[in-house]
């Protein structure tokens, strides 16, 4: 009986250690998934807002009219970002999709602000002002979502790479994750504040 | 040698004052910039912009709203002075303060940066449907005349009234105690894991001591004895203490106000950058 006690305690201890580590890995992984989903939603929210802005701006656009039409054509027929299940694609593939969407949004916003800067009537347009406030809101949400995703990935990587997690992480299928780095081209330009006009 | 020393001394006495001045100048703006930190009061006014009576009136209003509205909003007001980026400051302060209940995220934060004449309403996730970016912007724009005139209390009262009006129309309902119960359940799991681990640690050390005694007496050691001696018990103990302290922190976390009407305790709520900012 006494001989069995020690192995039994060791086995129980090992189960507790593995169980608690597994919970930590899973928790950290879920936080990354949540934040990735949040970023997908926010970028899609911005993408959904842009066609409304383009429609408002088109009547005032002279030089950028064709550019805006081209962007709108490129956008049609694409799967919305928030309908992509993060578990169905690799981190790199998903991050590229988000990055592409952000880059295109940034280019469109640039074209829209270029039109607005040259048109005082557009700046005074109530509908346009409302859309710009919403656009600013989405930009802020994207910034927050991106920061929190980076923090979640950092925390996840620390969990799977530090002792004692690193002894079990690989066996349980939890590997180091890639950070989401938005290139300067993908950074949405600052939204011009027309609210005072 | 004497010449070198004289030259060095003269160089130091000439160059040090400008260096110190430059350092002081560099440090000054940093000292004046407010950094995001957890708020512990319903109305935080470190620069005494509001009079005591104005602050008490706002505190009373915020407390009444929390008690009477079905969504039990946790509304906080912060007048931090100069901030570099009001969007980032408001979001980080909201996050650090855990405004609103955990899981319900029924919090709101009003920030006035008076030196830079900018304002922001940061909306918790739970209120994003009730207070859109556009609505918060309209509220801020409506407060411009009072802010421009320096009537900060009137502006804040107007903002709180407009927010409460919008929340009154919404059907968001929150149970005040739900989040606290959830936190206790979660931390109990942690306590169980930590407690089980502690038990294992105690058994392990007792058997390790026995094995070490055997080793010191020169008695033959079994494989288990050798394993026990090689286990880094101090590292395991450190790990267990961390788990238990995290559980204790979770357990002590509640939400609400204490005896002092103006004090605020984190509820674990969060915001994702919703809301709006304005310049007056």
Automatic annotation (TrEMBL), chain A:
Location, primary (coarse class): membrane
Location relative to the cell: Membrane
Alphabetized UniProt keyword annotations: Membrane, Transmembrane, Transmembrane helix
Pfam families, alphabetized: LemA
Membrane topology term: Single-pass membrane protein
Top-level division of the source organism's lineage: Bacteria
Similarity comment text for this entry: Belongs to the LemA family.
Protein's UniProt name: Cytoplasmic membrane protein
Lineage: Bacteria, Pseudomonadati, Pseudomonadota, Alphaproteobacteria, Acetobacterales
From TrEMBL, chain B:
Start and end residues of each stretch annotated as Disordered: 251-280
InterPro entries in the record: TPM_dom
Signal peptide, first to last residue: 1-36
Domain of life of the organism encoding this protein: Bacteria
Ranges for domain TPM: 43-165
Alphabetically ordered keywords of this record: Signal
UniProt keyword Disulfide bond present: no
Gly residues bias locations: 266-280
Biased amino acid composition, Low complexity: 251-265
Name of this chain's protein: TPM domain-containing protein
Source species of the chain: Gluconobacter japonicus
């Amino acid at each position: 009986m006494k001989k069995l006690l020690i192995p039994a305690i060791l086995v129980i201890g090992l189960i507790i250690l593995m169980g608690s580590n597994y919970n930590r890995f899973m928790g950290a992984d879920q936080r990354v998934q949540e934040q990735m989903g949040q970023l997908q939603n926010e970028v899609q929210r911005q993408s959904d807002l842009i066609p409304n802005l383009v429609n408002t701006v088109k009547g005032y656009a002279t030089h950028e009219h064709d550019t805006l039409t081209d962007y709108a054509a490129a956008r049609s027929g694409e799967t919305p970002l928030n309908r992509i299940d993060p578990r169905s694609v690799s981190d790199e593939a998903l991050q590229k999709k988000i990055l592409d969407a952000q880059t295109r949004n940034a280019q469109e916003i640039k074209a829209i602000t270029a039109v607005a800067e040259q048109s005082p009537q557009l700046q005074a347009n109530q509908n346009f002002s409302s859309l710009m406030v919403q656009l600013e809101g989405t930009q802020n949400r994207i910034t927050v979502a991106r920061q929190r995703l980076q923090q979640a990935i950092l925390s996840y990587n620390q969990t799977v790479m530090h002792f004692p997690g690193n002894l079990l992480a690989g066996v349980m299928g939890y590997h180091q994750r890639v950070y989401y780095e938005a290139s300067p081209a993908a950074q949405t330009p600052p939204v011009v504040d027309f609210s005072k006009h | 040698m004497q010449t070198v020393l004289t030259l060095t001394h003269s160089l130091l006495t000439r160059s040090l004052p400008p260096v110190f001045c430059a350092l002081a100048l560099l440090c000054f703006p940093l000292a004046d910039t407010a950094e995001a930190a957890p708020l512990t009061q319903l109305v935080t006014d470190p620069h005494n912009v509001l009079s005591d009576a104005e602050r008490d009136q706002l505190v009373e209003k915020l407390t009444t709203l929390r008690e009477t509205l079905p969504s039990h909003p946790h509304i906080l007001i912060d007048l931090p002075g100069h901030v570099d980026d009001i969007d980032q400051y408001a979001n980080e302060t909201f996050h650090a303060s855990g405004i609103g209940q955990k899981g319900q995220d029924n919090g709101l934060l009003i920030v006035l940066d008076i030196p830079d004449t900018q304002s922001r309403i940061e909306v918790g996730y739970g209120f994003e449907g009730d207070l859109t970016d556009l609505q918060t912007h309209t509220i801020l724009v409506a407060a411009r005349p009072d802010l421009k005139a320096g009537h900060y209390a009137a502006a804040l009262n107007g903002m709180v009234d407009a927010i409460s009006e919008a929340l009154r129309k919404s059907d968001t309902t929150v149970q005040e105690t739900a989040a606290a119960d959830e936190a206790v359940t979660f931390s109990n799991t942690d306590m169980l894991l930590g407690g089980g681990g502690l038990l294992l640690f105690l058994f392990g050390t007792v058997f390790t001591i026995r094995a070490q005694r055997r080793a010191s007496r020169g008695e033959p050691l079994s494989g288990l004895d050798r394993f026990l001696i090689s286990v880094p018990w101090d590292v395991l103990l450190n790990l267990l203490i961390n788990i238990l302290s995290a559980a204790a922190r979770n357990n002590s976390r509640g939400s609400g106000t204490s005896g002092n009407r103006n004090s605020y305790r984190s509820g674990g709520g969060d915001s994702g950058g919703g809301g709006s900012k304005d310049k007056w």
